[in-house]
């Protein structure tokens, strides 16, 4: 079936639909990872987004059901240069086309993904629609684009109930703003005794829970939309050690009086070099965010820096046990050399 992408600036790309062939509106972004499409599709941080994969052939190792980062698929659409119809891997349980059909997500293939990526890099992330109505023009779809809003993204991806994940180590209160399963696996690997709270947690439940550490998770959307969560995090500062990743990092900055702003086209990929200033060592990291900490809060210092654009990739408090990073140490963009960050998170509990 023919389909096309229409961006909010009127740019059009014609291709073929696959997956669930129903038109879909979203924020069009790109990811430069060569592998990991199964994890990308199921990462709650991509809620509301149409993801363009820059690697030219996608689907060649199929889909397995061991690696998903959540129980659902959160992207609004997937754009690829070429879809592989005959995956070949010993872990393959389903092909990409069938997986998207089952999860009601539209795909678009056969367009020039390199040209699309250049447009997003030069002009910034845009709203767009993958439509199977090939006669549609920007004027026809503009009402749908204007209506697009994901300010409630976190509440659509967070857990609805408190969940216990038992362990014999540090007692960790995990705040789920759209957490990836591999973060929980990483904490579980360190034998943490976890209680996972929904995003609408109450500070008193944390402070009265005899926890060693609070962990602020990743998640989708603009951190400034989460006014209630920011106030609740403020109530925890100075009373309990706090660690965070990505959205959690941004929320921590806002709760302490810092500021965040939108990146032009975001950091999404598995090849971002970050220097850990404390260890004077560069790590290749996996990142997925559209916002960043612009101003470091008083009392905090920059611990990590993205070497591509010198944006802040980590902060530590000079006195309090608070440490956050703007990348995914649980991901595997190559060697698992960023796993040490979790060990340093847990060391906060001893301070």
Task: List the SSEs and their pairings.
Layout: E1 2-7, E2 12-19, E3 24-31, H1 37-42, E4 49-53, E5 57-58, E6 77-80, E7 82-83, H2 96-102, E8 106-109, H3 113-123, E9 126-131, H4 138-147, H5 153-157, E10 163-165, E11 171-175, H6 181-189, E12 193-197, H7 203-207, E13 213-216, H8 227-234, E14 242-245, H9 247-255, E15 259-276, E16 281-295, E17 300-306, E18 312-317, E19 322-325, H10 340-347
Parallel strand pairs: 3-4, 4-6, 5-7, 6-8, 11-12, 11-13, 13-14, 14-19
Antiparallel strand pairs: 1-2, 1-9, 2-8, 3-9, 10-12, 15-16, 15-17, 17-18, 18-19
Helix pairs in contact: 8-9
How does this model look, in words?
This protein has 351 residues and is an alpha/beta fold. It has 10 helices and 19 strands. The protein has a 10-stranded mixed sheet, with helices on both faces. Strands 1-2-8-6-4-3-9 form a 7-stranded mixed β-barrel. The protein folds into 2 domains: 2-150, Glucose Oxidase, domain 1, CATH 3.50.30; 154-350, Rossmann fold (3-Layer(aba) Sandwich). A hairpin with a 4-residue loop joins β1 and β2 (12-19). The relative contact order is 0.13.
- Profile the largest sheet: 10 strands, mixed
CATH topology label of the largest domain: Rossmann fold
Spatial strand arrangement across the major sheet = 10-12-11-13-14-19-18-17-15-16
Q: How much helicity do the residues have?
A: 10-25%
């Amino acid at each position: 079936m023919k389909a096309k992408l229409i961006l909010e600036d009127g740019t059009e790309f014609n291709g073929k639909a696959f997956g669930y062939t129903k038109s879909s509106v979203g924020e069009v972004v790109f990811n430069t990872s060569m592998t990991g499409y199964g994890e990308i599709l199921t990462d709650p941080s991509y809620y509301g987004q149409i993801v363009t994969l820059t690697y030219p052939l996608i689907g060649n190792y199929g889909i397995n059901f061991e690696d998903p980062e959540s129980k659902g698929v959160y992207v609004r659409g997937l754009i690829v240069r070429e879809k592989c119809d005959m995956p070949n891997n010993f872990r393959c349980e389903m092909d990409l086309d069938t997986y998207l059909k089952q999860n009601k997500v539209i795909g678009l293939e056969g367009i020039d993904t390199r040209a699309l990526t250049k447009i997003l890099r030069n002009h910034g992330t845009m709203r767009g629609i993958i439509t199977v109505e090939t006669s549609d023009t920007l004027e026809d779809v503009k009402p749908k684009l204007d209506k697009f809003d994901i300010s409630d993204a976190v509440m659509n991806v967070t857990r609805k109930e408190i969940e216990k994940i038992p362990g014999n180590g540090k007692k960790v209160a995990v705040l789920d703003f759209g957490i990836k399963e591999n973060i929980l696996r990483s904490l579980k690997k360190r034998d943490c005794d976890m209680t996972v709270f929904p995003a609408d947690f109450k500070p008193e439940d944390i402070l009265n829970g005899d926890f060693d550490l609070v962990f602020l998770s990743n998640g989708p959307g603009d951190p400034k939309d989460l006014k209630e969560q920011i106030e609740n995090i403020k109530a925890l500062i100075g009373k309990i050690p706090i660690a965070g990743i990505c959205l959690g990092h941004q929320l921590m900055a806002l709760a302490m009086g810092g500021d965040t702003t939108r990146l032009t086209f975001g950091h999404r990929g598995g090849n971002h070099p970050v220097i850990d200033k404390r260890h004077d060592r560069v790590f290749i990291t996996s990142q997925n965010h559209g916002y960043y900490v612009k101003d470091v809060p008083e009392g905090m210092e920059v611990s990590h820096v993205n070497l591509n654009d010198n944006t802040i990739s980590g902060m530590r408090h000079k006195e309090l046990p608070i440490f956050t990073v703007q990348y995914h140490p649980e991901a595997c963009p190559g060697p698992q050399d960023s796993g040490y960050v979790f060990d340093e998170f847990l060391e906060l509990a001893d301070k």
